[in-house]
Amino acid sequence: MQLWGFGVGLLGVWLASQSGEFGRRSLGLGYAALAGLGFGGYFVLIDRVEGLFWPSAFAKLTAAVLVLGWALRAFPGPRQELGRYLPLLILAGLLDAGGNVLFLAAAQAGRLDVAAVLSSLYPAFTAVLAWALLRERLRPGQNLGVLLSLVAIALIAAG
User: Fold this and answer.
1) Distance, CA of 6 to CA of 142 (rounded, Å)
2) pTM score, two decimals?
3) pLDDT tier at 73 (50, 70, 90 boundaries)?
Protein backbone atom coordinates (compact mmCIF):
# COMPACT_ATOMS: atom_id res chain seq x y z
CA MET A 1 0.00 0.00 0.00
CA GLN A 2 2.82 2.40 0.85
CA LEU A 3 4.48 1.94 -2.54
CA TRP A 4 1.17 2.72 -4.25
CA GLY A 5 0.87 5.75 -1.99
CA PHE A 6 4.36 6.91 -2.99
CA GLY A 7 3.42 6.69 -6.67
CA VAL A 8 0.04 8.38 -6.23
CA GLY A 9 1.73 11.09 -4.15
CA LEU A 10 4.32 11.75 -6.84
CA LEU A 11 1.60 12.13 -9.46
CA GLY A 12 -0.48 14.30 -7.12
CA VAL A 13 2.40 16.66 -6.35
CA TRP A 14 3.26 16.94 -10.04
CA LEU A 15 -0.33 17.84 -10.90
CA ALA A 16 -0.80 20.22 -7.95
CA SER A 17 2.33 22.18 -8.85
CA GLN A 18 1.46 22.65 -12.54
CA SER A 19 1.03 26.18 -13.81
CA GLY A 20 -1.32 25.11 -16.60
CA GLU A 21 1.13 25.76 -19.43
CA PHE A 22 1.71 22.17 -20.51
CA GLY A 23 2.96 22.98 -24.01
CA ARG A 24 5.72 25.33 -22.90
CA ARG A 25 9.19 24.08 -22.00
CA SER A 26 10.11 24.87 -18.42
CA LEU A 27 13.40 26.75 -18.14
CA GLY A 28 13.64 26.00 -14.43
CA LEU A 29 13.59 22.21 -14.84
CA GLY A 30 17.35 21.88 -14.27
CA TYR A 31 17.16 24.01 -11.15
CA ALA A 32 14.20 21.96 -9.93
CA ALA A 33 16.15 18.71 -10.43
CA LEU A 34 19.11 20.13 -8.50
CA ALA A 35 16.73 21.32 -5.76
CA GLY A 36 15.30 17.80 -5.56
CA LEU A 37 18.81 16.39 -5.13
CA GLY A 38 19.50 19.00 -2.46
CA PHE A 39 16.31 18.26 -0.55
CA GLY A 40 16.84 14.51 -0.86
CA GLY A 41 20.41 14.87 0.39
CA TYR A 42 19.19 16.99 3.29
CA PHE A 43 16.56 14.41 4.27
CA VAL A 44 19.05 11.53 4.21
CA LEU A 45 21.87 13.37 6.00
CA ILE A 46 19.72 15.02 8.67
CA ASP A 47 18.25 11.60 9.51
CA ARG A 48 21.77 10.42 10.42
CA VAL A 49 22.20 13.12 13.07
CA GLU A 50 21.22 12.57 16.69
CA GLY A 51 19.00 15.12 18.35
CA LEU A 52 16.12 17.24 17.20
CA PHE A 53 16.64 20.97 17.63
CA TRP A 54 20.42 21.42 17.28
CA PRO A 55 20.64 19.74 13.85
CA SER A 56 17.76 21.86 12.57
CA ALA A 57 19.20 25.04 14.07
CA PHE A 58 22.63 24.40 12.57
CA ALA A 59 21.14 23.57 9.14
CA LYS A 60 19.05 26.76 9.18
CA LEU A 61 22.00 28.87 10.38
CA THR A 62 24.18 27.49 7.58
CA ALA A 63 21.47 28.21 5.00
CA ALA A 64 20.90 31.72 6.36
CA VAL A 65 24.60 32.63 6.25
CA LEU A 66 25.03 31.27 2.71
CA VAL A 67 21.88 32.87 1.29
CA LEU A 68 22.46 36.20 3.06
CA GLY A 69 26.06 36.33 1.82
CA TRP A 70 24.94 35.54 -1.73
CA ALA A 71 22.11 38.08 -1.62
CA LEU A 72 24.32 40.88 -0.30
CA ARG A 73 26.85 40.23 -3.05
CA ALA A 74 24.45 39.61 -5.93
CA PHE A 75 21.93 42.35 -5.07
CA PRO A 76 23.85 45.31 -3.62
CA GLY A 77 21.07 47.82 -4.45
CA PRO A 78 18.76 49.58 -1.99
CA ARG A 79 17.11 47.41 0.63
CA GLN A 80 14.38 49.77 1.84
CA GLU A 81 11.65 47.30 0.89
CA LEU A 82 12.98 44.74 3.36
CA GLY A 83 11.49 46.52 6.39
CA ARG A 84 8.05 46.50 4.82
CA TYR A 85 8.10 42.73 4.41
CA LEU A 86 10.02 41.83 7.57
CA PRO A 87 7.01 40.45 9.54
CA LEU A 88 6.05 38.17 6.64
CA LEU A 89 9.66 37.05 6.22
CA ILE A 90 9.95 36.23 9.92
CA LEU A 91 6.69 34.26 9.80
CA ALA A 92 7.91 32.39 6.70
CA GLY A 93 11.16 31.56 8.50
CA LEU A 94 9.30 30.32 11.57
CA LEU A 95 7.03 28.12 9.44
CA ASP A 96 10.03 26.76 7.51
CA ALA A 97 11.99 25.99 10.68
CA GLY A 98 8.90 24.43 12.28
CA GLY A 99 8.39 22.22 9.25
CA ASN A 100 11.98 21.05 9.42
CA VAL A 101 11.78 20.28 13.14
CA LEU A 102 8.55 18.34 12.60
CA PHE A 103 10.20 16.42 9.73
CA LEU A 104 13.08 15.50 12.06
CA ALA A 105 10.62 14.33 14.72
CA ALA A 106 8.74 12.22 12.14
CA ALA A 107 11.94 10.71 10.72
CA GLN A 108 13.25 9.83 14.17
CA ALA A 109 9.92 8.37 15.30
CA GLY A 110 9.31 6.29 12.16
CA ARG A 111 10.75 5.47 8.77
CA LEU A 112 12.72 8.04 6.79
CA ASP A 113 11.11 7.11 3.46
CA VAL A 114 7.60 7.65 4.82
CA ALA A 115 8.54 10.93 6.52
CA ALA A 116 10.30 12.21 3.38
CA VAL A 117 7.45 11.34 1.03
CA LEU A 118 4.75 12.76 3.28
CA SER A 119 6.68 15.98 3.85
CA SER A 120 7.31 16.22 0.09
CA LEU A 121 3.56 16.54 -0.49
CA TYR A 122 3.83 20.20 0.49
CA PRO A 123 3.04 21.54 -3.03
CA ALA A 124 -0.52 20.26 -2.58
CA PHE A 125 -0.80 22.11 0.72
CA THR A 126 0.73 25.20 -0.92
CA ALA A 127 -1.95 25.10 -3.62
CA VAL A 128 -4.71 24.72 -1.01
CA LEU A 129 -3.32 27.58 1.09
CA ALA A 130 -3.04 29.80 -2.00
CA TRP A 131 -6.68 29.01 -2.77
CA ALA A 132 -7.87 29.56 0.82
CA LEU A 133 -5.77 32.58 1.84
CA LEU A 134 -4.95 34.36 -1.41
CA ARG A 135 -8.15 33.47 -3.26
CA GLU A 136 -6.18 31.99 -6.15
CA ARG A 137 -8.13 29.77 -8.48
CA LEU A 138 -6.95 26.19 -8.82
CA ARG A 139 -7.00 24.63 -12.27
CA PRO A 140 -8.76 21.28 -12.69
CA GLY A 141 -5.39 19.49 -12.83
CA GLN A 142 -4.32 21.13 -9.59
CA ASN A 143 -7.57 20.08 -7.92
CA LEU A 144 -6.92 16.51 -9.03
CA GLY A 145 -3.36 16.78 -7.72
CA VAL A 146 -4.57 17.90 -4.30
CA LEU A 147 -7.09 15.06 -4.21
CA LEU A 148 -4.45 12.50 -5.23
CA SER A 149 -2.10 13.84 -2.55
CA LEU A 150 -4.77 13.25 0.08
CA VAL A 151 -5.33 9.72 -1.29
CA ALA A 152 -1.56 9.17 -1.12
CA ILE A 153 -1.49 10.14 2.55
CA ALA A 154 -4.23 7.60 3.28
CA LEU A 155 -2.41 4.87 1.32
CA ILE A 156 0.90 5.55 3.02
CA ALA A 157 -0.72 5.62 6.46
CA ALA A 158 -2.57 2.36 5.75
CA GLY A 159 0.63 0.55 4.68
Assistant:
1) 18
2) 0.62
3) confident
